[in-house]
Every structure is written in structure tokens, then in C-alpha cells.
Amino acid sequence: MGLSDLLYGAYERRLLKQIPPQRRPRHVGVILDGNRRWATVHGSSSDAGHRAGAAKIVQFLGWCEEADVEVVTLWLLSTDNLARPSEELAALQQIIDQTVTNLAETGRWQINPVGALDLLPESTATLLKEAAEATAEIDGILVNVAVGYGGRREVVDAVRSLLQQHAVEGTSLEDLAGVLDVDHIAEHLYTRGQPDPDLVIRTSGEQRLSGFLLWQSAHSEYYFCEAYWPDFRHVDFLRALRAYAARQRRFGS
After folding, report:
1. Which residue out of 81, 102, 157, 236 is catalytically annotated?
2. Which CATH number fits the domain 32-246, given the four candidates 3.30.70.270, 3.40.140.10, 3.40.1180.10, 2.60.40.420?
3. pTM of this prediction?
4. Which of 130, 152, 217, 251 has fewest C-beta within 10 Å?
């Protein structure tokens, strides 16, 4: 072990001491950004960048296990991404399919697809559903795999589902309008029944949410990291946890 490894380990231990167990997030959302730019820097193809990013996910979930995180939401493919050139999109979907398969096969985590599955190729939608079914009884981190996900689309889908439910029940629009509140919509989100994200991390230096968990992140804390996703390190994660632990959460007050 070289000097740099010793210093890195010492720094990790120091960071851990600065993160009280009672001030760690239950739900962490991650915008895995920068795969293509990482590939450009390394003189590689976009596919290579996405594969490098996919390889980081298992490691990241291991860090989350160590930090006692209960729910992780990984944004792998947005609705906007679906407009990419067909060749690039097909390669990306293949990588996502393999990533989800690998996550399910570990037997460590419960996979939960979130997104507009009707916008995805039938093979990908089927694979996501099968991964969810195969891991439903696993007692591990709940991993929301956001594929074909867009925050605005989620709210629209939630409202549509709400209206359909009340139409079946015979509720008039007038009666529904009289009682409708935020909880009614929350019950129809892709993440219904889950705690809202406490911490949202975005890599690659971009400082915007791009519609990620638009409804659920109303009171989330945000952490923006300069590293591209494939280069995201354990110390970067610990810094995000430290920043979260140091904040006074006011929940809009």
C-alpha cells in the first residue's frame, strides 16, 4: 500500500467521523451525469462512457449499504434521452438492460422500476417488470431504477391515474375538485409509499435537477459534485453525506 492509499484511507475515516449516524439520509436520489463527457476526456466512445458509469453503480450501492441508506433512486434514462439518435439509444438501452439484470442477480437489493414503461421497447419494459418481481422479497435497499423517467411526465401520469380511479368509483369532477389535495396526487406517483428523497446528488458539475423527482424533491437537500459519474469516489459520497448532515433542514419554513 502506497502513501497515497494511506492518506486516502485516513481522509475517509476523518469524513466518517463527521457524519453522525442519526443525521444520515434515508433516501438518496442520484442523477448519474457525465458519462459521455468522461468518454470524450478519455478518448473513448459514448458506449464506453455509459459502461463505465454502469460499472460504478454496484460500488455506489455498496457505499449506500454501509451508510444505512434505505432507498436509492438512480436516474438512468430520461424521457428526453428517448429522442437521441436510434443507434445511440439502442446501445444505451442494451447497457441499461444488462445493468438491471446484473443488479437483480446480486440478490442484494429490491429493484423497483420508475418511469413511463409504455415509452420503452417492450423487451426493456418486460425486463424491468421481471427484475421487480424477482427481487420483491429481498430485504435490502430499495433501488428505484428510473428509466424513461421525466418529472413532468410522472405528475401527468399521477393525475391521469387519479382521475381514472375516481371515474371507476363514480366520483364526479366537481366532488373530486372539492377534496383534492397533495396527498391524493402523491398516492399515484411512481414512488408512492416511499419516503421522499432527503438528499439528491448530481455529478458532472451541472447544477440543475432537469425534472428529477420534481414532486418528491420539494424539501430535498442538493449536492452537486464536479466529478463525472464514472469518476465518482467514496470520498465524494462521504462529502455529500457530510454536507447533508451539516444542514439544518427547514422543510420550507
Report:
1. 81
2. 3.40.1180.10
3. 0.94
4. 251
